[in-house]
Amino acid sequence: MSVVLVVNSGSSSLKYQLIDMSAERTLASGLIERIGDAQGQGVITHKAGDEKVVREAAVANHDAAFDEMLRNFAEHGPSLDEFPPVAVGHRVVQGGRRFFGPAVVTDKVEQDIEELIPLAPLHNGPNLAGIQGAKHAFGSIPHVAVFDTAFHSTLSDASSLYAIDRAVAEEYRIRRYGAHGTSHKFVAEATAEYLERPIEELKTIVLHVGNGASACAVDGGRSVETSMGMTPLEGLVMGTRSGDIDPAALFHLHRKAGYDIAMLDDLLNRRSGLLGLTGTNDLRDVIARIEAGDEVAETGLEVYVHRLRHYLGSYLVALGGVDVIAWTAGVGENSPEVRARTLRGMEWLGIEIDEARNSERGEGIRVISTDASKVKVLIVPTNEELEIARQTLEATGITA
Ligand code: ADP
User: Fold this and answer.
1) Are 388 and 131 contacting, i.e. CB atoms less than 8 angstroms apart?
2) Residue partners of 320: CB distance under 8 A and separation at least 6
3) At what angle do helices 107-115 and 124-137 cross, to 10 degrees?
4) Any bridge partners for residue 91, and if so which?
5) Which residues make up the binding site for Mg(2+) (predicted)?
6) Could you read off the pLDDT of 239-277 as tens digits, one per residue?
7) pLDDT, tens only, 87-132
8) Residue 295: per-residue pLDDT
9) What is the SS3 assignment for 327?
10) Which of 147, 176, 208 is the last residue of a domain?
């Protein structure tokens, strides 16, 4: 039995999961929040089996977060002596044009991740801090970096170059890298397996719609279009991110209202999307307000859905048809309203939603299209941690 520890290290949080890969079963998971909090109030959650513990402690930095994680395993199990990880898999957001698949961490790999920080300032630094903290805690086993961008390295120039001065773009590495690749890959593969069809034969559109959201067109298992761009800001309307916007709107805000870079960054990344449109970034609240007759909430959801339909239409053309549409992540898995509104009136394309199947709550992969629908529409719960663990074993050559 091979056990893999998966680590997702953000600027102020550390998520982890211990997975038994022989059964692809999660043994424990946890979350350490508010790392580096000025008041020293970190929140630590650990789940093992049916037991969930929450405690508070000061967590000064990522090294300290790993100490807390080890303490969780020692006090609440499972014991790492009994289930010793054979490798650690790390989520890394930006792999640029250097990493087209998982990479066993070496000094050179760490250096490359560091050099890519300017392309993902909010993510690659904390990801690297996580790798370094984990190496202190688990020195003797391999560490593997699994990149969010890697799955999209198959994008053509036509879909990944921006139409700006080529020399400027090359010097500053400005192009579409995409994101959520680990999830899109997992969902596309799980879909093919569920339908018992070879992935090589399938044209799939994956709609990963959560707080962050992106669409991906997958042709024969390869990503050919994706909606996030150089950074995870482009594309769909998200919880707090604007998605697509005319860049000239920013020039205008700068000239007319004195917005500087930090203010624009804050506006587009943290105060836009559903939050900007409606005042709340949680779709459940938006739906509740619509049901109570709130027109601002209704218009906000219309903008949100309009953008989804825009990308869907574009990907139907890019793929030359579609066999499967797969919904995943917080909204995609849980919101019948968004799914129904996005796919309405597409019977002429062979896309037919079954209202009862769409409204029913459920677990696992399930079909929500009618039996007659030419295009199958599925809900496919994503599992990025499992995908990272799989790729970690693949990169190290260790068997499950
Ligand atoms: P992240 O991108 O942070 O991983 P998630 O995929 O967890 O986000 O998605 C979180 C979002 O999913 C929430 O903000 C909420 O809008 C939405 N969501 C979760 N549950 C439901 C539900 N039952 N109905 C509608 N939306 C939901």
Assistant:
1) no
2) 203
3) 160
4) 146
5) 8, 384
6) 999 999 999 999 999 999 999 999 999 999 999 999 999
7) 999 999 999 999 999 999 999 999 999 999 999 888 999 999 999 9
8) 98
9) strand
10) 147
CATH code at position 86: 3.30.420.40
Do 130 and 258 lie in a common domain?
A: no
Instruction: Single out the residue of 248, 12, 283, 261 nearest to residue 122, CA to CA.
Output: 12
| Exposure string over 75-99, b if 16+ CB within 10 A, otherwise e | ebbeebeebebbbbbbbbbbbbebb
User: Which tens digit of pLDDT belongs to each residue from 182-213?
Assistant: 999 999 999 999 999 999 999 999 999 999 99
Residue ranges around ligand 1 (CB below 6 Å):
210-212, 239, 282-284, 329-331, 334-335
- 90 vs 8, 16, 128, 221, 228, CA distance in Å? 6, 9, 9, 23, 21
pTM surpassing 0.90? Answer: yes
CA of 74 to the centre of ligand 1 (A): 32
Tell me the catalytic residues: 148
Beta strands (DSSP E) in the chain are 3-9, 13-20, 25-33, 42-48, 51-57, 85-92, 103-104, 143-147, 203-209, 213-219, 222-226, 324-328, 366-367, 376-379
Give the residue ranges of the annotated binding site: 8, 15, 91, 208-212, 282-284, 330-334, 384
CA of 44 to the centre of ligand 1 (A): 21
Whether 290 is covered by a domain: the verdict is yes
Domain count, the chain: 2
Q: What tokens does 118 get?
A: 């300017």
